[in-house]
């Protein structure tokens, strides 16, 4: 079979495509609002990005022309502004002259290796020996989360011994609360 002239093939192809697109029209009409909404959102986001780029360039130019002054309000004080010999109660929380907690996450991190669980810890004028359960658990090295994980394996006497030891030594409120709550639950059973 010979092929039809180019123009005829072009017209038949265009007619077929028109019929196919007409059949797709109901689906296209349903999708059209979502398509318009997504295109509008893309245009708005592109516009916002362009505006942000212009503002950044404007800031850079203004900083070049008018360099910022290094001003600090008189009421603002920072650690580097304080003299080195100034140690206030807010800076160091001590237990017989030794730092008790440093930093924001001190309750969740292990203490220094110098704090040995077998060494009696003195609070005031008396020394408190660590109970057997504290040595067994390596209590001095436990974080709050680690202690929480070990509590279900302890009986009431061990919990009370740990609470008394915590109160007599470090006195960390989260540890005391955790132990006291566990004791309350254990006695309620």
Structural class: mainly alpha
Tally of contiguous helical segments: 5
Give me the count of strands. Answer: 4
Strand composition percent: 5-15%
Describe the secondary structure blueprint for this structure.
Elements: H1 6-65, E1 93-95, E2 98-101, E3 121-123, E4 126-128, H2 132-137, H3 144-150, H4 156-168, H5 173-188
Antiparallel strand pairs: 1-2, 3-4
Helix pairs in contact: 4-5
Detailed description of the structure:
Helices cover 54% and strands 7% of the residues. The chain is elongated, with a radius of gyration of 37 Å. The strands form two sheets. A two-stranded antiparallel sheet has the order 1-2. It has a two-stranded antiparallel ribbon with strand order 3-4. It has 189 residues and is mainly alpha-helical. The termini are far apart.
Provide keyphrases for this structure:
two-stranded antiparallel sheet; mainly alpha; 4 strands; 189 residues
Sum this structure up briefly:
The protein is 54% helix and 7% strand. By secondary structure, the chain is mainly alpha-helical. α4 packs antiparallel against α5.
């Amino acid at each position: 079979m010979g092929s039809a002239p180019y123009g005829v093939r072009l017209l038949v192809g265009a007619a077929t495509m028109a019929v196919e697109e007409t059949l797709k029209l109901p689906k296209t009409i349903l999708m059209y609002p979502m398509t318009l909404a997504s295109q509008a959102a893309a245009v708005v986001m592109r516009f916002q990005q362009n505006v942000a780029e212009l503002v950044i360039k404007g800031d850079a130019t203004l900083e070049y022309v008018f360099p910022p002054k290094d001003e600090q309000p008189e009421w603002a004080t920072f650690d580097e502004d304080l003299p080195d010999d100034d140690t206030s109660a807010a800076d160091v929380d001590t237990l017989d002259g030794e730092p008790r907690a440093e930093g924001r996450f001190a309750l969740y991190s292990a203490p220094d290796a110098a704090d040995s669980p077998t060494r009696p810890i003195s609070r005031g004028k008396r020394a408190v020996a660590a109970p057997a359960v504290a040595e067994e658990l390596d209590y001095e090295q436990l974080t709050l989360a680690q202690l929480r994980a070990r509590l279900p394996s302890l009986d009431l006497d061990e919990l009370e011994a740990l609470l008394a030891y915590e109160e007599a030594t470090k006195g960390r409120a989260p540890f005391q609360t955790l132990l006291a709550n566990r004791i309350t639950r254990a006695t309620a059973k």
